[in-house]
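Action item from last meeting closed. Structure (282 res):
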């Protein structure tokens, strides 16, 4: 296959220093190293600064309503299982407006990658608290500080049975790139929560804060151990990065659903013209 780069010259409407810039470069590097064809890769997003990402990568993309990026990605994956499908958005978009879609896509275990840019604040809509904002964070709309308990996306995903749960950091592109590559190669739903700073609206959880409060898992961690993964997810003092958990034994959506049968002929029913459907896919 020829070499594809997924990169093109375009103005990007992000603040200087935003963590979205290194995440973009990391994703492009991962796609290149996997030698993927841009015509066979689809990004889906909702609304937000992170949700602009698909417009800045030279591939197929769909931008929809706030919080709906994951549901559209799931539909795209089901229509054509041969595609590499990536749902992308911010913590507000994916865990707030899109929270219900998060829950039920984990149940379905579709074959897609879910990348969440986690800066603990809404960036596009001027800095109000997001579902991940820590208690006490002062924002333009929470002037006395946040008082709601923040969501724990890693613990939530694990408790619901997600088959690939990982956390990265925009300040370490090399290790985060490897997470993205592993997620793409995983059969089933794969979530990667990527910490990154919002340099304009979050003056607490800065680049330096993430550097101080995160660490990367080493070879001593067994990603097949769900109990150990949950213990890591529940530790909010020292935030573990890496693959917290991966289950390669659970059937994905296509294996569970009798409408599909294998990669060579993904649609299957006794009454359907299989050859005609396969021609559409090819």
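Sequence:
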């Amino acid at each position: 296959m020829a070499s594809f780069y997924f990169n093109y010259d375009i103005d990007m409407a992000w603040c200087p220093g935003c963590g979205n810039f290194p995440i973009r470069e990391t994703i492009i590097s991962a796609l290149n190293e996997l030698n993927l064809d841009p015509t066979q890769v689809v990004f889906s997003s909702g609304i937000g600064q992170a949700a602009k990402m698909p417009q800045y990568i030279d591939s197929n993309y769909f931008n929809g309503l706030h919080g709906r990026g994951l549901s559209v990605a799931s539909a795209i994956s089901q229509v054509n299982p041969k595609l590499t499908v990536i749902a992308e958005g911010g913590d507000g978009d994916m865990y707030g407006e899109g929270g219900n879609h998060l829950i039920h896509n984990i149940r379905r275990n579709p074959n897609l990658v879910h990348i969440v840019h986690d800066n603990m604040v809404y960036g596009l809509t001027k800095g109000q608290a997001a579902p991940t904002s820590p208690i006490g964070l002062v924002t333009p709309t929470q002037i006395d500080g946040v008082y709601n308990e923040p969501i724990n996306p890693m613990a939530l995903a694990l408790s619901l049975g997600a088959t690939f749960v990982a956390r990265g950091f925009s300040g370490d592109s090399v290790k985060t790139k490897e997470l993205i590559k592993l997620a793409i190669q995983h059969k089933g739903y794969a979530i990667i929560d990527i910490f990154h700073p919002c340099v304009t609206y979050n003056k607490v959880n800065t680049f330096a804060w993430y550097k101080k409060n995160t660490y990367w898992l080493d070879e001593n961690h067994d990603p097949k151990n769900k109990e150990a993964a949950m213990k890591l997810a529940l530790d909010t003092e020292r935030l573990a990065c890496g693959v917290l958990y991966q289950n390669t034994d659970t059937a994905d959506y296509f294996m569970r659903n009798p409408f599909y049968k294998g990669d060579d002929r993904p649609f299957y029913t006794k009454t359907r013209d299989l050859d005609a459907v396969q021609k559409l896919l090819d």
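Note appended to the action item: The chain has ten helices and eight strands.
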